[in-house]
Amino acid sequence: MAGVYVHVPFCLRKCIYCDFFSVPEIGQTTAYVEALRKEMELRRDFLGEEPQTFYIGGGTPSLLPLTLLEGIVEAADRYFDLSHCTEFTLEANPDDLSPEYVRSLRSLPFNRISLGVQSFDDEVLRFLGRRHTARQALRAIDLCRLVGYENLSIDLIYGLPVAEKENSLEAALRLDLPHISAYHLTYEEGTPLYELLQKGLSPIDEEISASQFLYFHQRLSTAGYVHYELSNFAKEGCFSRHNTAYWKGEPYIGLGPSAHSFRGIRREANVRSLPLYLSSLSEGKLPCTVEKLSLTEQFNEYLITRLRTKWGIRMEEVSRLFGERFAESLCQNVKPFIDRGLLVGTEDTFHLTVDGMLLCDAILRSLILLDPIRRG
Ligand code: SF4
Questions:
Q1: Minimal CA–CA distance to 173: which of 207, 141, 133, 129?
Q2: Cβ of residue 254 lying under 6 Å from some atom of ligand 1
Q3: Residue 57 CA to ligand 1 centre (angstroms)
Q4: For residue 314, what pLDDT is reported?
C-alpha cells in the first residue's frame, strides 16, 4: 500500500517550537511547483506500484492558491497515477481557510483535512507563535463541515510550560471529530523555544507530563477513540491510512525540499534548502541523498515504526523478514519489559501497554541492535 507525500515548504512565520523545514518566501511558490513537477517526472518509477494514499503536508499547504494545489494534484496523477488512491489529505492552517477557499477545495480530490489547531486557548496559541485564534480554529472546522468534509483531523499540543486556561482536549471532544493527533511539546535545538529553555524557561515536570499523557489516553479512550499510535487517536475506521502505511513499513515517496522516501532497503532524503532544491531540479538533477539499509538497520527501522502502534511486533513477521537469529534475540530482549508490564501480547505478537507507551524511547533503545547480526 504505497503513498505519495508532498512537502510544501512555506510558512508565513515560524512557530516557536517548530523544526520542520519551511521558509517565508511565498513569492517562490510557482517556481516550487514547477520544480516539484520535475521531481515527480524524474522519480516516477520510485514506488513501483500505484499509490493508495496522497498527502500534502508542510509547512503550510493552505498558503498555496487553488491553482497551484491543482497543479500539484494533476502532476502527481500524471506521474504516479492516483486513480487507486482512497485517501487524499491536505494539511491546513485554520486562518487560511476562508469560505471561498474551502468551497473551491471541493473541486480537488481531497477527502480528509488535517488542521493545525494545537490549542483552543488564545494565550497558549500566542505563546506558541501560531497565527490563528481559537475562534478561527472553530470556524475553520465549521466551514469544512459545512461544505461536506467529515473526515477531519486536528493536531493538539500538550506538555506545555504555560498553563492552559481552556481545556483544549475537552473543547476538541465537544466537536466529535473522527481523528485527533496529540503531540507532547519538544524542545528542538535551533528553535526559539530551545533558546527560551537556554535562557531559563522551565519545562514541565516529568510527572505532570506523564499524567497529561495518561489523561489524553484515558479521556479519549472513554470517548470512543482508539489510541492506535503513540500520538494518534481515531474513531474506529478513521485511522490515517497514509500514516499507518508509514508505520507498517509500506513504500512511500516524499517530494519537495526535506521530504524523505522509503522503499524496502532504500531510504532517500531531499535537501533541506529551497534554493538548492530549485537549482538542482532546474539542472535536471535529483536533490536527494540515498542510503541503503543493512539487514540490522532494517530490523531497527521495523522496531521503531511498529512499536509505536497498537498492532505492535509480530514474531512470525520478524522471523520471515530477518531470520531466526533476529527473532531469538528479540524474544530474549523483550522478556524483562513483558515481566514489568510495559509490553503485553501473545506467543506471536506484542505491543506497548499504556505504561510502556510512556517509556517507548527507552524500551526501543534496549531493543534496537547496535552490532550487526547475520540472518539465521
Ligand atoms: S505552521 Fe506548522 S510547519 Fe509552519 S512553522 Fe508552524 S508548526 Fe511549523
A1: 141
A2: no
A3: 10
A4: 95
User: What is the average pLDDT score of the chain?
Assistant: 96
Asked whether 183 lines ligand 1 (CB < 6 A), one says no
Ligand 1: atom nearest CA of 116 is 2
In this predicted structure, the answer to whether residue 134 has a pLDDT above a threshold of 90 is yes
SS3 assignment, position 324: helix
| Cα atoms in the 13 Å half-sphere on the side-chain side of 147 | 22
Q: Is 90 exceeded by the pLDDT of residue 345?
A: no
**Could you identify the residue written with the cell 530482549?**
333
What does the pLDDT read at residue 18?
Answer: 97
Cβ contacts of 137 within 8 Å, gap of 6 or more: 94, 115, 117, 120, 154
How many other CB atoms are found less than 10 A from the CB of residue 12? 13
Q: Would you state the pLDDT for residue 346?
A: 83
Alpha-carbon span 259 to 271, nearest angstrom: 8
Domains of the chain and any CATH numbers: 2-246 (3.20.20.70), 295-376 (1.10.10.920)
Q: What is the mean pLDDT of residues 152-171?
A: 96
pLDDT of residue 374: 65
Q: Which three cell numbers stand for residue 3?
A: 503513498
